[in-house]
Amino acid sequence: MRSVVTAVVALLAAGLVAGCSGGSAPAPVRAAVDPNLLSGCGPLDDSHIGAALAATVAPQTSPTVCTWRVTFTGGGTADLTYAWLQHDTLLRDSEVAAAQGYRTDKLILKRFGAMYWRDPRDPGSCAVTAADSGTLTWWVQNRDHSATPEPCAAALALLQATLDIDGV
Asked: What's the total number of domains in the chain?
């Protein structure tokens, strides 16, 4: 988790969005025309996150970045991190990733440029970031640091669900 925090803190250095609320009541899904759709903890409520990962969700929060702990149906737990950085760029994130020693792979997600962040020291940790009016990132870190469930697939599922709600 320390490497995730380090990477997220590095991303936040540019100055970002307001904090999120961590209540267990689901947030309403807003129309895609809402300019603040991605702010706070984003458009996915706890039930969307649980459904996307087949997991039980327990929200946790910290300022500017939203976190959850999930327990997978088949066993295992993971920490999830969501960040929407309004004034960030994919180029800057790739530079931060390189400086932190992460392996990155570029991809196109829906119509957005995106990238995977992989920690070569931790097969249970992966993030996916897309350029969507800033950058939108979901990070998954398996608590036991194992590669199962596959953290990149989980991060990608959450990012795709977020973009679906965002109207993309």
From this structure: 1
**pLDDT tens, residue order, the chain (168 aa):** 445 444 543 443 333 333 333 444 444 443 444 555 566 677 788 888 888 888 888 776 654 678 999 998 888 899 999 998 888 899 999 999 999 999 999 999 988 999 999 999 999 999 999 998 889 999 999 998 888 889 999 999 999 999 888 776
In a domain, 33, yes or no: no
Contact 76, 151 (CB under 8 A): no
3 state DSSP class of 52: helix
Return all residues near 46 (Cβ < 8 A) that are at least 6 apart: 24, 26, 57, 59, 68
Distance linking the first and last C-alpha atoms of the chain: 31
CATH at 74: 3.40.1000
Using the structure block, give the residue that is written with the tokens 């961590």: 22
Domain span at residue 140 reads 2-15+38-165
Tokens of residue 96, six digits: 């931060």
Total-model pTM:
0.69
- The residues, any chain, with a CB within 8 Å of residue 102's CB and separated by 6 or more, are 7, 117, 118, 119, 120
Distance CA 61, CA 41 (A): 9
